[in-house]
Amino acid sequence: MYYTDNSILPENMQPLIITAAPYGPAWLPGDAPDIAVTWDEQVQAAVDCYKAGATMLHFHVRNPATGMGSIDFDQYNYLLKRVKEAVPEMIIQVGGSISFAPHTDDAKAKWLDYDTRHMLTELNPKPEFVTVTTGTTLWDIASMFLPEDVKGTHMEDPKVQAAWGGMVVDSTPAFYVEHLKRLRKNGILPYFVPAHVHQWELIERLIRAGVYMGPLNMALCAYGGGTLGRNPFDMMHFLSRVPQGSVNTFWSSMRGLISYSAMAIVLGQHVRVGNEDNLWGADRKRKTTVEQIEGVVRICKAFGRRVATAQEARKICKVGVWYNSVEETLQNAGMPPNPTEFNPGFLTWPTDGKLKPAVIGGDSHPIAACMIAPEPVRKAQNAIMASKKSPEPVRKLEEEPVLAGKN
Length: 407
Description:
Layout: E1 18-20, H1 39-52, E2 56-59, H2 73-86, E3 91-94, H3 114-118, E4 129-132, E5 137-138, H4 158-165, E6 168-169, H5 173-185, E7 189-192, H6 197-208, E8 217-222, H7 232-241, E9 247-252, H8 256-266, E10 270-273, H9 289-303, H10 310-317, H11 326-333, H12 368-371, H13 375-387
Parallel strand pairs: 1-2, 1-10, 2-3, 3-4, 4-7, 8-9, 9-10
Antiparallel strand pairs: 5-6
Helix pairs in contact: 1-2, 8-9
């Protein structure tokens, strides 16, 4: 991704897409004041987020009978139907991890097996997106938590933190290649979640090989513990590697999310906020998902960038759009074409063949304009001087001045 002179001006940026993550599958009821448990509460959470300014919903399901994350696909379909009826314009992004939260001392965090995760491609009604990982990675979400981050929650227990410390995202080619095929067959777009730049390289290879042919939407993960951390230079490097046509959401944990959200806003990228990732405000006081969304909206307003409407968000993410060739996918993503036998080098797309006019400028040395002005400047100065009607005559000295000490 590249930036031109005016790219960082808010009027030249896409409207901001706010993704809300209000279902907090890692937390237990009571860990945060806005953990929705009943069906009505879970539907209302989506409605409240939409009203606050979020146009995308990161979707999980909690079983009201147990208060725990659900792996019952009938319940997924039920809640999905109700949410779509309540906020029909909101983009639904189903979390591809399904349920992986350890809530007992002896539990080990893990992602469900491939067959169970493939069932997400058959949800009915269909969500717009399902998140997709590429590459098996340690995903220790607690690695950057401070003691104050988890104060008052069940994660204060070191045994629970240790369980999270062993969470591995299992995503080999046997999973993601098949998953992408099934998503396309069922008309559901992937929302890629690369944990670091090398997982972006896997996504690029999938595109160049024709395994995936569609718009490129990604959440750049900065949770630490095997994923990108909180060093902003790493995020900027990540951003420099992704193509111009990608739609990128910055995503981190706890109050680090606030800093990354501010970065995303001023860099023309997009944000995800909510109790799944963060429980706090910049003032170190508890903040609900809705309050976090409202905070992002305030930053946007102060900066001068618009928040996307639902229709704008759908257009930016190209919801429902698919491509039919590798070349079409590459070109729409702003990526160079694949090499061929006759054109294997540094590649660009064909142009109209016309030479562009050269930029007019003077000597590039910074002092040159002060010492010897460029030709356009000299012409303008001559015109100014010629327009003067009666230039002041130069006075001649009538006699030679007497120098000090001269006889």
